[in-house]
Specification:
With 157 residues, the protein is mainly α. The protein is built from six helices and no strands.
Length: 157
């Protein structure tokens, strides 16, 4: 009799001490419940505020936590692409004053979008498993570092 290979879901599930680590949503819910109990002991909330304000907020947090857990496989690639497009947008926004389209502000203000974009590109380079996305992050990071070098030498050169 042939043994069946474990399902991909079972293979991806953590085992050992990592499997006992609570998820972020569960930890957040527990923390909010503790904070709510602590604040209720200090000053009791009226019944109407618990029913109208706190209960819907906790229900929304639980629902968002379930949604994040349910769609965590799709959220990773979407997050990486949003980070890449954000780095590209930072390059465009930061490059406008450098190219003379906007007035030139202080050097720290000019360097900030390029540094943030370079940080995003580094995170993409380390976090992506797709080769084309890593190459695009490398190219975009090279543009960001070139812009940082140009602005730095123009101001402090």
């Amino acid at each position: 009799m042939r043994s069946r290979a474990p399902s991909p879901r079972a293979a991806a599930a953590p085992t050992g001490p990592a499997s006992r680590v609570p998820s972020m949503g569960l930890s957040l819910g527990r923390g909010l419940r503790r904070a709510f109990r602590w604040s209720r002991e200090r000053r009791p909330l009226p019944q109407w505020s618990r029913e109208r304000l706190v209960a819907p907020m906790l229900a929304g947090l639980r629902a968002s936590g379930r949604g994040l857990v349910r769609h965590r496989r799709a959220l990773g690639p979407v997050t990486l692409r949003v980070a890449w497009w954000s780095a590209l947008l930072l390059l465009v926004v930061g490059g406008q004053p450098v190219l003379g389209l906007d007035p030139l502000p202080e050097p720290e203000v000019v360097l900030a979008p390029f540094a943030a974009g370079l940080t995003l590109c580094a995170a993409l380079q380390l976090g992506s498993s797709r080769r084309h996305l890593r190459f695009a992050a490398l190219a975009l990071g090279a543009l960001h570092s070139t812009a940082i070098t140009l602005v730095w030498t123009a101001f402090y050169g």
